[in-house]
Amino acid sequence: MKERTKKFTIDCSLLCSKLPNSREYNAYVNQLIRCSCSVGANYRASQRAKSTADFINKLKIVEEEADESNFFLEILLEINKNKELKVELDKLLKEGNEILAIIVASIKTARNNQNKT
């Protein structure tokens, strides 16, 4: 999962480099780069958590940032006119949704395990 979230960060950055450089796009691009970087960085941080509560807290940040990344990918998908980029946007959105689902399931499992102790 560490490599997968890192790849998501890199792939979002590479996509952003292909988008038009305009006032409208730049706002979305900057936001997508910020939140997708946070997905990878915070997942990595979760692996060094000091406690289960710390682990859950860090995963909650990953959840929020992954959801935000998906939002900006959806916006870019809707405003994008380049058909070649549509395929890449669809692929990244699918990956973002899969990461989000895995993180939500991990949080649930960690909470259940925490409640057992």
Can you put this structure into words, describing what you see?
By secondary structure, the protein is mainly α. Helix content is 88%, strand content 0%. It has helices at 2-18, 23-46, 52-79, 83-116. The model has no long low-confidence stretch (mean pLDDT 95).
What does this entry show, briefly?
The chain is mainly alpha-helical and 117 residues long.
Largest sheet: none
Question: Share of helix among residues?
Answer: over 70%
Measured distance between first and last alpha carbons? 26 Å
Low-pLDDT windows of residues: none
Strand-and-helix sequence, N→C? HHHH
Please identify the oligomeric state: single chain
- Give the beta-strand count: 0
pLDDT averaged over residues:
95
Class inferred from helices and paired strands: mainly alpha
Report the sheet-strand fraction: under 5%
Gyration radius over CA: 15 Å
Helical region count? 4
Name the shape in a single word.
elongated
